Amino acid sequence: MREDKKTIIVFSNEMDKVMAAFVIATGAAAMGDEVTMFFTFWGLNVLRDAKKKAQGKSFLEKMFGAMMPKGVEKLPLSKMNFLGIGPKLMKYMMRKKNVMMLPEMIKQAQELGIKMVACSMSMDVMGIKKEELIDGVEIGGVATYLGEAGEAGVNLFI
């Protein structure tokens, strides 16, 4: 086990929870720790690039993809979502308080060398293709995560 290694499972696609994951991850990386974020199930929506589309999807995969938020700008809040008004209010307050927005946090995470891994099994179940994801994301299974977590001093589930 290494005290300077951290892993975070991002299971949620709720904006506030995802922000917490990136604040912790970038904070740890800024302190010199090695960080791996493993995005699975709903957390995969964080990694979906709103501008990218995939070919060769089945009808059900297309339907599933249409029902899920595509990218960080579409993420709901875990509380007080109010049909999408809550996230807009949260973003307004973040800008007003000079808090880094989620797309900037993701870019900062990549610049800090944080490894972002998309769960291959969840991608298959949810019909998400590699070509739909933001650049720089690795694809891996549970063995990838367990290998990283087995070496880490801190493992979080968000």
UniProtKB/TrEMBL annotation:
Keywords: Membrane, Transmembrane, Transmembrane helix. Gene3D superfamilies: DsrEFH-like. The chain crosses the membrane at residues 20-47. The keyword Transmembrane applies. It comes from the Bacteria. PANTHER family: CONSERVED WITHIN P. AEROPHILUM, PEROXIREDOXIN FAMILY PROTEIN. This is DsrE/DsrF/DrsH-like family protein.
